[in-house]
Amino acid sequence: MATAKKKEWTEGRRRAFITSVLRGGYRRWPPKYECLKASFTGKKINPASKRMSAHYKCKKCKGDFPTSQVQVDHIKPIVDPKIGFTNFEDFAQNLFCPIENLQVLCKECHNKKTSKENEARKKYDNSKKNNKD
């Protein structure tokens, strides 16, 4: 029987694995749920499902949205777009932050904020590449 060749993990794969494990733990982070609770507006009929659902107020657009349409966002990004990934200690410190750095955003507002951060990250990465040349 032939044995499969064992592949070594790249640094990128290792980092992605560890950050994924940390993000999994964040799902149970108490300040995240305190933040959700603070923006709770009541149980109402979800227009999409026609069922009762908890609703939350978006910090940005002030709209009222069911649970499935909101996300808890880090006000200060976990990874600073202008610096990039530094180390796992900084990553964990920023991920498991106090409630003061968390806000509830609807998916649309969260996607817009994330897009801006990703654009800033791309600009930073491109400037870093150009400085190496």
Description of the molecule:
With 133 residues, the chain is α+β, with helices and mostly antiparallel strands. The protein has one domain. The chain is 44% helix and 19% strand. It has 4 helices and 5 strands, in the order H-H-E-E-E-E-H-E-H. The strands form 2 sheets. The protein has a 3-stranded antiparallel beta sheet. Strand 1 and strand 2 (52-57) form a beta hairpin. The longest helix is centred in the last third of the chain and has 26 residues, at 107-132. It is globular, with a radius of gyration of 19 Å. The model has no long low-confidence stretch (mean pLDDT 92).
Number of strand segments: 5
- What order do the strands of the largest sheet run in, or round the barrel if closed? 1-2-3
Poorly predicted parts: none
Structural class, from helix and strand content? alpha+beta
How many H/I helices?
A: 4
Through-space gap between termini? 49 Å
Shape: globular
How much is the radius of gyration in Å? 19 Å
Task: Spell the H/E element sequence.
Answer: HHEEEEHEH
